[in-house]
Give the backbone structure.
Amino acid sequence: MLYTLSRNVYGASRDLYALSKMVNTFQNIAYAILTMVCAILNIVYAILKMVYELVNHFQKLVNLLQNGVNFSLKPVSYFRSSENLSRSSVKHCRNSRNHYRSFVSFSRNGVDHIRRAFLRH
């Protein structure tokens, strides 16, 4: 009788061990799936952040082109003349380290060329 009882306890303990291994396997699978989902979400977040930064830079460039530069054919030197740039834009470009700086140069035929140098934030 004691032998039968010990065999039943031993069988039950083996069943519990197999069950725990199975649960552990399911936990590992669930953890791996959650890790993959988090990695995919991080990739999506990085892509959306990059798109946001590009749109933000493009918007700043459009604002600078609309508000800050007067497209005249008169030759001007970089920032010494306020005829081609408004005062606020000149002050903004001189004082800002994190935004666009505008460099105006002219080709041989006298056509205005606006070059933008993007500074990192």
